[in-house]
Every structure is written in C-alpha cells, then in structure tokens.
C-alpha cells in the first residue's frame, strides 16, 4: 500500500487522460470520440465510443477535482444527447440504453440538468421501442434485452427493467445442470459468460429480481448459474468454463479465456452479485474465491504464447481483471499483490509521447500485429483509466467506488 504505487497509477492515468482529451473531436460545440484516431466517424455508445469516455472523465474529475475533465464530460454529454433520437440500436453497450446510463451519470455527478433530461428522453425512446417481448432478438448483455434491463435499473426505471426480463422464464432451455438461453433467436452455439452468455442474463435476472422483490427471477438466475457451474473444468479449487458449447468455430477464439467478457474475471462479478442477493448461501462467495484462485494462478498477464493475453483493455484484457482485483482488495483484503502485477504490466505496455499515454492491443494473426490505440471503454484508454484511478484510490485508502458504476459490476461492498 505504498505512495509510489498510487503515484505511478495516477501518473499513467493523467497521461492517458491527456491523450484522450486530444483525441476528442468538436461536433457542433460538443465533443465526441472515435473508436481509434484513424476512424472517420465518432460513435456515441458505451462500448467503444463517447458514452464510455464520459464515465472515465467523471472518474477523473471526482479523483483529481480538475475541471478540465468535468468540462469535457459536459461537452461530451451534449454530443451523446444529440445522437439519442437517431441511434437505431437499443442495447446497453451498443445503443441508447448505455447512452442513458452515461447521461444519467453526468447528471448525478456534475448536476448537469440537460444531461438528465437527455437520459429521460433516452428511456422514453426505449419504452416506445418495446414490442411486447423486447427490443431485438438478442438475449445477451452487450446488445440484448439483459443489458437493457440493467441500464433501466441503473437509471431508476424499475418498470422498464421488469419489461426487459419478462421474456426469460418462457425462453429458458433446461439442461443437465440448470438452464441456459440462446445468444440470439435461432443462433447456436450456447455461450456461458457475461458478455454474450448465460451469466450476463443471470446477472440481469438477479439484479431485477432483487430490486422488484421477485424471488422467481432470482431462482431462475440461480438455475442459470448452476448450468455454468456444472461446466467447470478447473476442479474443486478453481473455476474455468469454456467459451461456448459446442465450441464456436473461429480462428481468434480459444476454448478458455480469463477476462470480463468470456472468462473468469466476469464470472466472478456474477457470483459477487449472487453473494449479495443470497447471503445465507455459501455457494456464491466460495465461487468468487475459486475464480480468484484461477486468475491468480493462470499465468496472466504474461504473454506466454502468440495470442495468449494480448489485450490491455477492460472488456477482455488486463484492466478487466484489475477491476476484480480492486474489488477483492476492498472486500477481502487480498487483491493488492496481484493488482500491483497487473498495473506494472499496464505500465510496461503503455506508449507515451508528446500527445500523452495510450495502449495498443495486439492481434498476432495480422501484420503488423499492433492495432491502433483505442479511445473507449472496452479496448481503450477510457476503460484502463477507470481502473488505474480506482487502483490508486484503493492503495491509498480512498473510496474505491467508481463515480459512475457500470450496471454489470456490483458496487464495492
């Protein structure tokens, strides 16, 4: 818990914030961010666009009290607000639902009433798009109805969240271990983890079930989790489940992953939530412990072979594991050593020049293998900044919570 660890993480974050501010584009007096500096178009979404950047700027303002970050967040909120009505996608990470979360965050943290009104307008638009069953044929969290449920819940609209989960009891598929769902209607294989699979749906059902006092939804969530638990390949002390069954055939997909999206770090977040909702059941904290055991002993963040652990970002890389390590340190007191390893790796892979600090992910099957540095939450600076600042707060005894919590990660207890 040294001052130097805090200073190093903060210094990295400040450099990354400088790079992020320089990457902004002026859009009719507002600010917007492209996915990468080489992209022609900006995007308002949470996953790799302006909404995700807003959450990092709000964390930075809360952490440093530097008004540059607040001003950029307000201007960024203007461009997101302007995009709401014309954005065709509805999902949490890909559409209007995530834009509502970011706009509500600007309103709550900075008191910006225009952002609050735009968040309300986004929720009204979502309600108008509801077709009696959902918003699209996706069941999963990233783009589908599960994520919309979590966004509505985060924005305080419990009725809308309830509509978003109504389809899941009737569409659950019974398995030998519990239940599962399609990713999208008529699409195989079945996936298991947070981003596109069963645990993302489990998370939404459990969260809405608790908020709405719906034990039937919590029970269904437990059955979904049971299916994933039955697929564990790491023995009684660990937790590691395949990407999909049958394995999705794609040259870039390995059978096992460790990040938030398709791996153990994300699985642990679902089990953390179930631990809160079902506190008398020792199953769930034990599973969090098993996920932690697997991650610490997995070999990450070392890149031991081509394609193994070549992403620094929040979705499927080092920053997403760091998020869990900081949760672990705040709640159990045993996350700091591994978090320090992860931060050191991020520091070693950072690129710093006159424009600031950024990270480039890799794809070993392409030449050149270094990808363009990204701006957003999923693969870029915004997601990494949030975790570096949180690490700095955790190591220095400050409040470990985010300024704007993402709906798919339980706030630190």
Description:
With 413 residues, this protein is mainly alpha-helical. A two-stranded antiparallel sheet has the order 1-2. The two termini are 20 Å apart. It is built from 15 helices and 8 strands. The longest helix is centred in the N-terminal third of the chain and has 21 residues. It is globular. Helix content is 50%, strand content 5%. The mean pLDDT is 96.
Concise synopsis of the structure shown:
With 413 residues, the protein is mainly alpha-helical.
Keywords:
8 strands; 15 helices; two-stranded antiparallel sheet; 413 residues; mainly alpha; 50% helix; single chain
Shape: globular
Q: What percentage of the residues does DSSP assign to strands (E)?
A: under 5%
Count of alpha/pi helices: 15
**What is the topology, as strand order, of the major beta sheet?**
1-2
Largest sheet: 2 strands, antiparallel
Radius of gyration: 20 Å
Low-confidence stretches: none
- What is the N-to-C order of secondary-structure elements (H for helix, E for strand)? HEEHHHHHHHEEEHHEHHHHEEH
Report the strand count: 8
Structural class designation? mainly alpha
Distance between the termini: 20 Å
Helix fraction by DSSP (H/I, runs of at least 4): 40-55%
Mean pLDDT over the residues = 96
